[in-house]
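Form 12-C: Joint structure prediction
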Amino acid sequence: MRSAAVLVLGLASLGLSFCPQFASFEDTANEKQNPFNQLTTDEFNEAYNFIYDKFNLTSLEDAGTADNYVELLTLKPPKKYEALDYLNDSGDKPLRYAKAVIVHGTDSDPSIKTYTVGPLNQDSIDVHSTNTPPIPHNSRRTKAHKDAMMEKVFVYYALAPISEIIEDLLGRPWNLEEYMYLDERLNLDGDKRLRWLELAQKPDDSAFWGGFTGFHILIDFSGQKFSDWKVLKIVYGDRVWRGLQAFVDDYNDGQVANVMPQFTENELAHWTRRRPDVPVRDLEDRPAPISVSKEGLRYRLDDKENHVSWLNWDFFFAHNPETGISIHDLRFNDVRIAYEISLQEAVSHYSANTPTNANSALLDRGIGLGEKLTPLIRGYDCAEEATYLSTHNWNGTHDVVTPDTVCIFEMPLIQPISRHYGLNDASSNKATKLVVRSISTPGNYDYMIDYALFPDGTIEASASASGYLLQSHSSKGGEEFGTQVSDTTFGNVHDHVILFKFDLDILGESNTLVEKSIDVQKRKFFWQDEDEDGYESKVIKSANVEHEKGMDWSNNYDHWLLLSNLDKKTRYGYNPAYRIMPSTPVIHDTPGTQARMQRNAVFSREHVYVTKYNEEEETASSMYNMNLPNKPPVDFGTFLNDESIVQEDLVLWANVGMHHLPRASDVPSTLFLETKSGIMLSPFNYGTEELSRDLTNVSVWHAIGAGNLTAKQAVYATIDNVTDLIKTVEVYNDADSCGIEPFNQSLLGLDTSK
Ligand SMILES: *[C@@H]1O[C@H](CO)[C@@H](O)[C@H](O)[C@H]1NC(C)=O
Ligand SMILES: *[C@@H]1O[C@H](CO)[C@@H](O)[C@H](O)[C@H]1NC(C)=O
Ligand SMILES: *[C@@H]1O[C@H](CO)[C@@H](O)[C@H](O)[C@H]1NC(C)=O
Ligand SMILES: *[C@@H]1O[C@H](CO)[C@@H](O)[C@H](O)[C@H]1NC(C)=O
Ligand SMILES: *[C@@H]1O[C@H](CO)[C@@H](O)[C@H](O)[C@H]1NC(C)=O
Ligand SMILES: *[C@@H]1O[C@H](CO)[C@@H](O)[C@H](O)[C@H]1NC(C)=O
Ligand SMILES: *[C@@H]1O[C@H](CO)[C@@H](O)[C@H](O)[C@H]1NC(C)=O
Ligand SMILES: [Cu+2]
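Section 2 - Result
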């Protein structure tokens, strides 16, 4: 993220009361460098050149199944305590290392291994193996170009002999221009490379998502050569054939009827389009309202170090190809709240009675969750005055920049953050938030990932999904698993489970997760009479979470999870804490549907987890977890090994997401509106008062004279002014004027003789 662009629109006066003038951010060089920034072009080149010779690499463009190539090159994040030494002022900037994932196709037992390369920019550079176990070659992603090409060629030639049958059944002869295919893997531990393909018509790359034909092929791609590969099954209608020959024989015997209607090309090309055929809504020809910071943006940005400060908040952000944008060293009023907040994984887990969707348990990190940040569409995806930044990825030979993949903006909530309107005073306090946004489009869905900061110390991480439903051709009995969303397709029911990591440090690294909850107890109080019944009371229970574990949010939200520092106390004797809670409904994966969600997705089974920080447990998933349900390179289950976690450095992992029951209004696009799901972290006895009280853009009124806000003095002022202005409200006995008899003190029965 090195180049920043600022939109400056100098519109000539149009005779309106104001014309939008988008200001530029305050460009400020941060005193510290960003230890989490992606490798620079020089660093990428240094690491790549070093391993290139060492491992007999072939460039990704030339590599095939029997070559060695780099499939991922990225920053290896610094060790937390080395980074803290630097960020806390005393230490040097941590040395820079690269993480390299290398496919060893030339080995007799080919596999994929993970290495650390570095230190970079120093006199000596070396490469070391890591503890990540070797990944079976059969579980590789199809990244090498000749590998992808071989796969297409195989599918092409495998189906060529039945091209006419395909034409008879699906309307068009078999070729790679007319059809695409979606594939889902069947194997659980990498000993095979089995993949179900469903043919889809392809009028264009988007409409394809609705073009599924119901023609499925199971192919065994195990091994490195064409001669190792074979077609195992064909599924069409409600029938299965084991091998091509059985299918061809049945067809020639007149046993295969055209039973599945297909979209016409024209219908298909239009299902993704807007509707130009209906009139514009009343007044919709006027531009929608926008927000503008009239006197300049209120954040400072160092666009080289990716450091932002805004209203007493400051933080670094970074991009990596595995998980996208992350936030680091997040401080409020100069005090660190979080060491890291980052996306970890996005799961879409389907159910269906068709082979591809029945096997769809997508862990999008394997499809490019962080790699496929798409350019944000200016004026639409972010606020009008947003600052856009680019990110860059190693594409196998080069450092390649994608522009406008991150945006930063401050936006009004169009509601006060606090308000009260009383007899003697009224106040309203402006609320805005600062947002860091990116949108990842690893396939059919677009995940909008927002990190938002609020002026009171609250943080929110959220994800919402739009894009095209993954559909499957209407199948007999399909209604049980989905909803018909077009003449020929179903949208199948699925879960979106999206995991975030929250490495918070509340006033230091030693913290404790405290669970407070409401317990109902019957209590009788000393001020009650003997024969009076007691009270069914809400009693606050509090307990430390002693060991690493996963938890679900309580049904009625009567539990509070507080990341607290037991070594510190506020004036009232409480341990300063941040509360973690859902800001919208969240889910975990539907229990009992775990066929392809085994050790690879243990993190998706509960709402929230707490673990002790461990350098080896930097992330909850990997690019290969999707392909290895039983033997994933990262098994989150091993993070939960019962370690004691009282006053330790803790990490919270929390899922957001939704159960997606598709319906007509998902077509053509699922709406961001109702798919938003987030986690909120907010101060809980973190101080002794609400922490946005120092904001000055407040409308405060105080009555001149008691109880009469009509006679008001309006102030836009600091707390000091306001305090000065508060008038003593006189209590007076003015009942006479209301026609009520005056109050007689002697009614109180007090003995006034003493
Ligand atoms: C990587 O980027 C370079 C430079 O833009 C380009 O020439 C090359 O084809 C790309 N390689 C791949 C595998 O896309
Ligand atoms: C290097 O890899 C190529 C295949 O990419 C292979 O043909 C060659 O034998 C390998 N060389 C060595 C020294 O291993
Ligand atoms: C970093 O600074 C914080 C706040 O002063 C302190 O609590 C923490 O122990 C320091 N950590 C390290 C590793 O120096
Ligand atoms: C505070 O908000 C009011 C109402 O929007 C606005 O008129 C005023 O200019 C603001 N003042 C400052 C200092 O931002
Ligand atoms: C409140 O103040 C207004 C303006 O000064 C005045 O007209 C009105 O009589 C006052 N009302 C009361 C109940 O004092
Ligand atoms: C608030 O205080 C400032 C600084 O003392 C002063 O300039 C300003 O006039 C005060 N505003 C009001 C409404 O009293
Ligand atoms: C108040 O009540 C007492 C006792 O009933 C009575 O003696 C006295 O006159 C009353 N005072 C007034 C002002 O009414
Ligand atoms: Cu969905």
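Section 3 - Comments
Residues 715, 717, 721 surround 2-acetamido-2-deoxy-beta-D-glucopyranose (ligand 6) (CB under 6 Å). The chain has three domains: 41-132, 145-270, 308-415+430-508+551-684.
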